[in-house]
Design a protein that fits this description.
CATH architecture of the largest domain: 3-Layer(aba) Sandwich
CATH class of the largest domain: Alpha Beta
Low-confidence stretches: none
Radius of gyration: 18 Å
Largest sheet: 6 strands, mixed
Strand order of the largest sheet: 6-7-8-3-9-10
CATH superfamily of the largest domain: P-loop containing nucleotide triphosphate hydrolases
Structural class: alpha/beta
Number of strands: 10
């Protein structure tokens, strides 16, 4: 589904180069030291950054030169990007149309997404009137109504406690399975990756240094760079 071929990008004095492939429906965690290029990797896939060279393929089609709105991608950030002056329903509906001119079918999609993430009872409230976890559910519901096959998560649950992070991960995994989403998640919480991902990419010095099945990544036999990062 996603394939990066010699994708180069320069940030200050670091020349990054990413080679990466993941099939449709996989959940890959991305971890590594701060400043290694994890968020840049997601931004290149989403189209928020433009590579110096290389190919970024979705289902075989190179989209390296296409803007974000032409890519089959939804991205969720740590900042849930909700609008405080709009109610929950409208915040989700913006994922379909910024002008909010929705057909009955599209309005039903918003209602269904709110039901799916457990926000039906909150749809008339403002973001300032709900909890942090519920605000993150707004972002997840907005991703649902966008109906894109690739979901990118850039440290979306960092501000949440362990129990609430696990709850959000369970929700993401359930949506991944029901919609056959391809999910790529950057996190500084290794336990979240161990819990949710089928493989883990270790980013170091602007490259994917290792891409391993999750069990192998967290095993005592993992490469020494990974064990050093994890504190093992």
């Amino acid at each position: 589904m996603i394939k990066l071929e010699a994708v180069k990008f320069r940030y200050e004095d670091m020349l990054m180069e990413f080679n990466f492939h993941m099939p449709r429906g996989e959940f890959v965690g991305v971890i590594g030291p701060s400043g290694a290029g994890k968020s840049t990797l997601l931004s290149l896939i989403a189209g928020f950054e433009t590579p110096l060279s290389g190919r970024i393929r979705f289902a075989g089609i190179d989209m390296a030169d296409r803007p974000p709105d032409q890519r089959p991608v939804t991205m969720i950030f740590q900042d849930h990007n909700s609008f405080a002056h709009l109610d929950v329903w409208t915040n989700v509906a913006l994922g379909i149309s910024p002008r909010l001119k929705l057909s009955e079918e599209k309005r039903a999609r918003v209602d269904d997404a709110l039901e799916r993430v457990g926000l039906s009872d909150c749809k008339s409230r403002k973001p300032t009137e709900i909890s942090g976890g519920e605000k993150q559910r707004i972002a997840i519901a907005r991703a649902l109504v966008r109906d894109k096959p690739v979901l990118l998560l850039d440290e979306p649950f960092t501000a949440l406690g362990p129990a609430l992070r696990r709850e959000m991960l369970d929700l993401i995994r359930a949506i991944q399975r029901s919609h056959n989403l391809t999910v790529l998640m950057v996190t500084h919480q290794p336990e979240d990756t161990e819990y949710a991902a089928s493989r883990v990419a270790f980013v170091e010095n602007g490259k994917i240094a290792h891409l391993l099945p999750t069990a192998d990544f967290f095993a005592a036999s993992a490469p020494k760079e990974i064990r050093s990062y994890l504190g093992g």
